[in-house]
Amino acid sequence: MKEDLKRKYSFETITTHLVTSGFLYPSSEIYGGLSNTWDYGQLGTLVENHLRNVWRQHFVREKMNVYEIDPAIIMNPKVWKATGHVDNFHDPLVDCKHCHERFRADKLIKENKPELDVDGLTSKEMNDLIQSGEIKCPSCDSTSFTPIRQFQMMFKTFIGVTEDSSSEAYLRPETAQGLFVNFKNVQRTARAKLPFGICDIGKAFRNEITPGNFTFRTREFTQMEIEFFYKPSDENDAKYFDYWKQECLSFVEKVGLKPDYLRYRDHEPTELAFYSKGTTDIEYFFPSLGWGELMGIASRTNYDLSRHQNASSQDLTYLDPEDNTRYIPHVIEPSFGCDRLLLALFCDAYDEEEVGGEKRIVLRLDKKLAPYTAAILPLSNKLVDQAKDKLWSLLAKDFDVVFDQTGSIGKRYRREDAIGTPYCITYDFQSEEDDSVTVRERDSMEQVRIKISELNSYLKEQLTK
Question: What number is the average pLDDT over the span 404-421?
Answer without folding.
Answer: 96
